[in-house]
Amino acid sequence: MKLFVDVGNTSMKWRLRDGTGCHQGSFTHDRDWSGVVSELARVAPASVNEVHVASVAGSEGDQLLEGELLRQLGITPRFHYSEASAGGVRNAYENPRRLGVDRWLAVLEAWHRHGPSVVIDCGSAMTIDAVAQGRHLGGYIVPGLAMLRGSLLQNTADVHLSSALPASLEPGSSTTEGVEHGILLMSVAFASRAVVELRRGLPDTCSVLLTGGDASRLESWLGDEVTLEPDLVLDGLERRVRMDRGE
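and the corresponding structure tokens:
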């Protein structure tokens, strides 16, 4: 059985795969690698014999996570990073490893599944990338909803926020609503404009894929042409492992 792990800045998604199907879930990690691997150990059966990790936690975080996976699961994990090219897709970055592996795997999966595509990843940061003709065309990086919210909390007095408010783009009738609705409007407007810019080099019928932890909060505001793909990075990680096996 194989364990696939997608480590973001604040959360970890995992997938167990055997010959008959898969089981998956997620945890908030808060960079407590010992604790989060303990959670993984509770769901991972003894039959796990491979661990594959895509991580944006940084080199120190990866080393600590590797040590905990070896200590608690008894398996040395394989970490996957962005490459100059793989699976017929070429990376736009001059230094390929500087592209977050989550973006790389999402682009790789998007290309193989949909062809020319725009990928909107709504995580701690919002990233928007395009791929066409087997080339990653680059993209944009801006703060995500939680990061925008946190910036206001840190730098503004007497502002109380709540992500539990119903999503709306209407003007707020309180400071809390004004901030929450404004953050959402800013993110939706940026994503919509970025898609327009990226599509200049893509066919009009290209796919627009939405993934990441806050994807569901933006989905309804981005139009019917956007397809929700919540597990795009994990799917890309699995595909990359299959490529190495020639599958």
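(Above: one complete record from the training split.) The longest strand covers residues 135-143.
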